[in-house]
Amino acid sequence: MKRLALLVAVACGVWGMSASAQATPFSFEFSDGTNEGQVNLSYTVYQTYVLATSGTLTITNSSDPLAVGTYNLVPNPNAPATSQSAFLAFTYDDLLYPSSDPDYIVHSPGLLFQNVSSDGPLLVNFFHTDDLDYFGNGNYSLWTYYAGTYPEPGYYGTITNSVTIRFTTPNPPQPPPDVPEPAGFVVFSVAAGLLVVRRWARS
C-alpha cells in the first residue's frame, strides 16, 4: 500500500509541475524630478511571455496633485494580446520584457492601474514612449483618465512623458523559449505511473 500511494503521488506531482505557474514579486521606482513614485508587481512567467498579474502604482509626488495616491493593477484577461480599459480609455497589455536595462522593462501599450479611492483620476497608464513616434525619448509616460465631471467629462491628463525608472528588486527572468507545453510527456508519465499502479495492485 505504501508503494501504491507513492506511485500515485509521483504521478500527480508530475502533472502539477506542468500545470502550475509561480507569481514572483518585482518593483521599481520612477522619477522625472517632479513626478515620483513606485510600482510593485507580481508577475508570472509563461511559455512565451511574462505577465504582471497583480500589484500597485503609488504616486508620491506629481505635477497633477489629484493624481497622488495608490492604484491597483488592472489584470489583462486576453494576455498576451491587448485589452481595452473601462470607457475604452486605454489599450494595455500588462506585459513585462525581461532586461537588465530598466529603459525597456515595459513597452507600449504598457501597464494599467485603477484608482482605489473616489478622488483623482480613475485610470493611470504607465507605458514606454519609444513606441510612440512623437516622443521617442527612451523614457516612460504616465497618462491619466478622469471618468467623472472634473476637470471635464472623460478628461485625459498627461502627468509626464519623461520619467526614468530604477529597479528596487532584480528584473524578471527571461521567459522560456517558444516551445509547446510538454503535455505529451506529462500524459505519458501519468499513464505509465497508473499502469505500474495497476500491476502492483494486482500482485
**Secondary-structure element order, N to C:** HEEEEEEEEEEEH
- Into which percentage range does the β-strand content fall? 35-45%
Structural class: alpha+beta
The Cα radius of gyration reads 22 Å
**Largest sheet, order of strands side by side?**
1-2-3-4-8-9-10-11
Low-confidence stretches: 1-20, 180-201
Choose one word for the global shape: globular
Mean pLDDT: 76
Q: Give the helix proportion (percent range).
A: 10-25%
Distance between the termini: 11 Å
How many strand segments? Answer: 11
How is the biggest beta sheet arranged? 8 strands, antiparallel, barrel
How many separate structural domains?
A: 1
Number of helices: 2
Overall description:
The chain is of the alpha+beta class and 203 residues long. The protein has one domain (22-180). It has 2 helices and 11 strands, in the order αβββββββββββα. It has helices at 2-19, 183-202, and strands spanning 23-31, 36-45, 50-61, 69-73, 83-84, 91-92, 95-96, 111-115, 123-128, 140-146, 155-167. The strands form 2 sheets. The protein has an 8-stranded antiparallel beta barrel with strand order 1-2-3-4-8-9-10-11. A two-stranded antiparallel sheet has the order 5-6. A hairpin with a 6-residue loop joins strand 5 (83-84) and strand 6 (91-92). The model is unreliable at 1-20 and 180-201 (pLDDT under 50).
